[in-house]
Amino acid sequence: MAKDLYPNKDDLQKFVDARYRTAWVWQTVFLSALLIAILALSALILNVVDGAFGYVVYEFKKDPALVSEKPIDDLNQTELIALLKDNLSRGAYNKLNNEKVMETRSEGELYGLVIERIIQVKTLKTYPLFESLFNRAAIEAEVAEKFPGARLEFRSWLTPDFLTTPMSSRAEFAGVRTALFGTLWMVSIAISFALPVGIGAAIYLQEYASKKSLMNKIIQTNINNLAGVPSIVYGMLGLAIFVRAFEALTSGALFGVTDSNGRTILSAGLTMGILVLPLVIINAQEAIKAVPDSIRQAAYGVGATRWQTVWSHVLPNALPGILTGSILAMSRAVGETAPLIIVGASTFISVDPSGPFSKFTALPIQIYQWTARAQSEFHAIAAAAIIVLLVLLLTLNATAILLRNRFQRRY
Amino acid sequence: MTTETQSLAPVPEQNSVPVSLRRKLRLGEGLLEAILFVVGFLTIFVTVSIVVVLGDQALLFFNDPQVGFREFFLTTQWQPSIGQFGIWALVSATLTTSAIAMLVALPLGLSSAIYLSEYASPRARSVLKPILEVLAGIPTVVYGYFALLFVTPLLRNLIGTENLGVYNMLSAGVVMGIMILPLIASMSEDALSAVPNSLREAAYAMGATPFEASIQVIVPAALSGIGAAIIVGLSRAVGETMIVAVASGATSKFTFNPLEAAETMTAHIARISGGDLSYNTIDYNSLFAIALVLFVVTLALNLFSQWIVSRFREQYE
Question: What is the CA radius of gyration of chain A?
Answer without folding.
Answer: 30
